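U., I forgot to send this yesterday:
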Amino acid sequence: MADSVARIRPYTRRDDKPVRFTLAKACMEPLAIANHRACTHPMVLALWLALASAFVEYMKWWPNGGLGLLGYLRPLPLFASTAVPIMFFMDWINRPYFEESVQVMLREPDIKDLAGYYGKGSSSGLWILEYGNIFVGVIALDGGTTAPGSKSEKPKKTGFIRHFYIDEPYRKSGIQTDLLEYALEHGFKAGLESIEVIDTPLLSYQRDCLRTAGFRLVDYAKVVGILRWKTALRSLDKDAWLKRDKK
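Result:
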């Protein structure tokens, strides 16, 4: 199709619903990843096998070849039923961290009026990435605010990437790099001297993209989830960005 090309364009008010839905999804997607990583952790798998084996022993449902083919499958329902409470427990522990992140996002100053907030300064911007007519991703650069928890003592102009998300099917293409570079180019050309962002190890595509762009670790922001994953505050100076372009 002739219109099936990727493009980055500024946010318009008609994008309000898909953008707000995407921002909420971006906060909650790490929950599914956290639950999966927690449930597949070696210690959790060992606990599951131990509990399931004890359950099978209690019920005396070990494989029995005398019952035919189905006799070999007797333990499977007990192994499956033992996994359910473990998965529920992992979600019960992890969920509050990510539900809180949604609440924090909804209270951010940009959410009430996205168009007005990101149109207030030349260094700010909210951009949509599309493939044809398909909404692929979004990035928001706040040119007037540093990252929460930033320890920067510099008076220089520092921006903050508030939102950065690419829909899962398109991440393998590396298109997130194009969207990030577009926002960085805009911010630095508009006068920003550094840009900060907070990322999470649960969204590896995002962290890899930021590292490739030259963002350096400044400090760890907070820990989340049952396995205590650390979110990181990262920063990129304009000088480092320009040197990267010359390589």
